[in-house]
Amino acid sequence: MKTSIFVIFAFFTVLSSMVEAGLKIYYIRHAEGGHNVKKEWEDKGVPEKEWPEYVGNPDMFTPKGLEEVVTGTEKLQKYDFDFIATSPIWRARNTILPYLKATDQQAEVWPELREGPGMTTILSKDLPEVERDILNKGDEIEIPDNEADFFTIREGAENNYRKYPSGCSDERKVAYMKYVSLHAIDLIESRFGGSDKSILLTGHNSSGVSLLKLLLKEEPSGEARRGIDSTGIWMVEQQEDGSYELMIYNDKPYVEE
Predict the structure, then answer these.
(1) Which letter does DSSP use for residue 40 in this model?
(2) Other C-beta atoms within 10 Å of 27: how many?
(3) N or C: which end of the chain has fewer CB within 10 A?
(4) Are residues 116 and 177 in contact, defined by beta-carbon separation less than 8 angstroms?
(5) Strands of 110-253, DSSP E
(6) Are 199 and 108 in contact (CB under 8 A)?
(7) Is the dihedral of CA 42, 47, 48, 50 positive or negative?
(8) CA-CA distance, 142 to 244, in Å (whole number)?
(9) What stretches of 82-148 show up as alpha helix (H) in DSSP?
(10) How many domains does the chain have?
(11) Alpha helix ranges (H) inside the chain
């Protein structure tokens, strides 16, 4: 009898959690680009003139990266997203592009998802204040004609954020990255906070780790202490009090250490 009561209680607990499910934020890192393997080829001692064309090129995928785009597309098709945003950088756009084509969806371009420094120190209390607003002050974002059906540029974010002021210390550069990432979080929460929506962000390693830490407001433990794998996914779910709980990291259920 006690076992039956426990099973019934457990069932209704799970059902309740599904009904009250909060906002889910998924984040996928881009596939392996040529810039990711440059050091590897340098360490091999192979003369640069003998390198394959993709080596060192951030706008080309490695052979492994091309395979990751395929598997990443298959992986994403297991989910349903209410909204998709991406970094404007080629490797991020082209990681998500086959998925957009396969599902007839569009992604909104968010310059705040660009790569930037600070994944290890983004939560430091010693970061200085930013000196100026850099949002939407940089180069104009351009989407090639052959991608125009799948990407839209967010209103008020037609330009990348401006490069950090000349002579910035490393700490101030991280402060700017924090400023940019917090703006992305503000955008997410103003649009989707408190809802049961699922959204997908496509970006990079360092900026993705920084964003995760700022959402959690703490350093994650266990597997999440290391970087995001190429086309690896993390997911956080918003709780009733507005905080976020890490549920998935590098495609696996997250277990706090």
Answers:
(1) H
(2) 26
(3) N
(4) yes
(5) 151-153, 198-203, 233-238, 244-249, 252-253
(6) no
(7) negative
(8) 33
(9) 90-103
(10) 1
(11) 2-19, 38-44, 63-76, 90-103, 170-192, 205-216
Confidence bin at 6 (pLDDT 50/70/90): very low
Taking the C-alpha atoms of residue 2 and residue 97, their distance in angstroms, rounded to an integer, is 52
The per-residue pLDDT for 164 is: 86
148 in a structural domain: yes
Query: Is position 7 within any domain?
Result: no
Quick one: tokens of 40?
């590897």
Do 231 and 26 touch, CB atoms closer than 8 A?
no
Contacts of 32-37 spanning 24+ positions with Cβ under 8 A: 32/61, 32/62, 32/64, 32/65, 32/68, 32/230, 33/57, 33/58, 33/59, 33/60, 33/61, 33/62, 33/65, 33/91, 34/58, 34/59, 34/60, 34/61, 34/62, 36/62, 36/65, 36/230, 37/62
Query: What is the percent of the chain with per-residue pLDDT over 90, rounded to a whole number?
Result: 84
CATH of the domain at 133: 3.40.50.1240
Model confidence, pTM: 0.90
Give the tens place of pLDDT for each residue, 79-91.
999 999 999 999 9
Q: Is the CA virtual torsion 164, 167, 173, 175 positive or negative?
A: negative
Give me the numbers of helices (H) and strands (E) for the chain, helices first please. 6, 8
Residues contacting 50, CB < 8 A, separation 6+: none
Average pLDDT over residues 30-36: 96
User: Would residue 232 count as lying in a domain?
Assistant: yes
- Location of structure tokens 């266990």: 222
| Residue 82 domain-assigned (yes or no) | yes
User: Residue 205 — left, alpha, or beta (φ > 0 → left; ψ -120 to 50 → alpha)?
Assistant: alpha
